[in-house]
Amino acid sequence: MNDRERATPSDFLLPLLLLLFVGSGCAALIYEIVWFQMLQLVLGATAVSLGVLLGTFMGGMCLGSVFLPRLIPEKWHPLRIYAGLELCIGIIGIGVLNGMPMVSRIYTAHFAPGLAGFIVRGLAAAICLLPPTLLMGATLPAIARWVRATPRGVSWLGFFYGGNTIGAAFGCILAGFYLLRVYDVAVATYCAAAINTGVAILALAIAPFAARSSADAVQISYEFPIKASTAWMVYLAIALSGMSALGAEVVWTRLLSLLLGGTVYTFSIILAVLLVGLVIGSAAGATIARESRNPRRALGWCQILLIGAIAWAARAILVELPGWPINAHLGQGSVNLFEVDLMRCAFAILPATCLWGASFPLALAGVAARGSETGRLVGGVYAANTLGAIFGAILFSLAAIPLWGTQESQRILIGICGLAALLALTPTISLGAVFKLAMCVALVWLLARTVAPLPWKLVAYGRDVAVDDFAQRALYVGEGINSTVAVTEDSAGERYFHVAGKVEASTLPADMRLQLMLGHIPELLHPEARSVLIVGCGAGVTAGTFRLYPQIQKITICEIEPLIPKNVTHFFEPQNQAIMLDPRLTLMYDDARHFVLTTHEKFDIITSDPIHPWVKGAASLYTREYFQMVKDHLNPHGLVTQWVPLYETDEKTVKSEVATFFQVFPNGVIWANDDNGSGYDVVMLGSADPELKIDVDALQRTMDDSNNAVAMAVLGTVNFENAEDLLRTFAGQASDFHGWLADAEINTDRNLRLQYVAGLANNLQLADLIYQDMLARRKFPENVFSGNGQVIDRLRVAMSGK
User: Fold this and answer.
1) pLDDT tens-digit profile of 434-454?
2) Mean pLDDT, the chain, whole residue set
3) Considering all CA atoms of the chain, what is the largest pairwise distance in Å, rounded to the nearest integer?
4) pLDDT tens digits, residue range 12-35?
5) Does residue 331 belong to any structural domain of this protein?
6) What percent of the chain has pLDDT over 90?
7) Could you say which of 96, 436, 494, 739 is the most buried, measured as most Cβ atoms within 10 Å of its Cβ?
8) Could you tell me the residue range of the domain that residue 737 belongs to?
9) Same domain for 283 and 397?
10) Same domain, 211 and 295
11) CA distance 377 to 577
12) Same domain (yes/no): 484, 533
């Protein structure tokens, strides 16, 4: 080509600039993961809270990209500005780490439900996220000033964007699979700050040797034309592209977490594939932008191809991948299974993410004009793309999925891409434009019809959907604002409640026994209890136990997903005593940790419906700080029960859960819920009092009280006929497990170690081995049990195994 640009001395520094962006992107993603983890502990993990966090994070980047080119004089050296931005990001990142406790105190002191609470959430997020994200958003426009608005220069801007994204992908893997798994948020933050510092030093070292390319670049025969008056259509097209990209991320993350299991590793894998696709696409788009005389048309074709790529992803996730004969339980939590999951994610979503990655450099080239100030050029396109992304993430997470479901949401995504294609391909109204409109509408309509409905088996059994033949029928399937749920029934009439691809409750004997133990044990040991908090509604069985006790005056259920109390519990009314009809019931739709953190109420009993610890976000309900908050919200003599599964886990995970609980409740005890003598799960019980005492005679009198006759009849259905039957399930007290727990990792807010440990073990089946190991350490609790000598003697013999 006779219009190629000639290289200049400064151009040889471009690869080093690319390296700067790799480091910057890596640090940014580490911060993002750390800040979201820390702020969710304060603001909660509901979709509303996540929407506030994401909107604030991306909004700050958008504002930074817009205002930096307008506030900082163009004569300042771009590399020195860039170095200053990186240093400030590192300093503020460390400030956020150490200032979070203060933000938490301010937030909890001023939080109120409703609109006021939403505003306070936003203010808390803004205090933490806006200062650093403003600077992050400014980095690309700052360095963009070093290149010239020519096809070659804009091509390099695309490579910078790709370098930033590949660094982000590496940061995502580094944080999710190493820094936070092995260390904690402090180490991860210091690592990110060190990367910021290294990037700043390199930028300052390069600066004296980097003459401004706009000053020394030679004239070429081909430059961009003067910006057309329809450039706004390109800005709108890239905004719609960003909207579809983040909307698809929300939808696909929801669906893929069903298929792969909702661990923290699954979310890291999905995000990594998305970022890698953006890298590949941005590199391709940058090359096309350099060589093409009509990058705007290439942008339009990207959007047309996205229509097919989204339809492909829908078919892959909903039809193809569930049929792959992959047995997750054979992977034993190994790296091999992560490799398979990575391959499945790439198979489904990589084509679309590559096309979104290509869209950004093509949009830059599509609006570039002779004499453009590159900082403003990049800032404008980046801001448009980010604004669309913010709107897409909030629209699909808070509205589209809960209102219309993932099937219609994906059809909407296809339509958005069709609209973006029309904007990019039709700068003027003409007969050709009308033809393009008709063809685009037809393509959208045809491919939208291929999007399959969400299979109920995927909702119910997730990662096991391809390896078991579930002889059940679906009674209900619902996609809510926070979770996807289902209710099924087998041929024997047993019912199952599923959340996000796993069984959370059922009417099977072992599950019924567990759910009843969580409620009846604390109530029978605290017959003066008047107020109860149940964390998680589930099938309502645990909450329903308290309806049977007339002395209970207030029952509060805190549930994150509104679909569950409204649409699920009535399928289990015989088992949950129609708890939703009880006038004493108060329903709080909130993240349980957030509710406990912000409420001023205290309770006599706090219990939890089973929540699997390997699910991303659940570990925050097993931390030392959370248990301390629970203890602080107990009235004198108050009791708390906490479920611990022995299945789909390993000994390391169980030790972490038990040791963390016993640090806060050193008087804690454990009750076993075995399955015909084999290990299944256990219930931990702690008291607000310094010592826990169980009077066998008093317990029997409570069970014999005529006011509790209905409750005892229900307990009899799971073979608890008297106090002795109940006490036989005693599996040990804290002092019995001191040696066993010596190497246990304590789960704290700072490390959330449990979600990383449990996520590696969720495919294991070691329940009985763990259970027998625990029972081997059990001693008869002479300091806990008292009363009827004959009952005590029989219990002593039973617990000795003789």
Assistant:
1) 777 788 888 899 999 999 999
2) 88
3) 103
4) 677 787 888 899 999 999 999 999
5) yes
6) 64
7) 96
8) 508-800
9) yes
10) no
11) 63
12) no
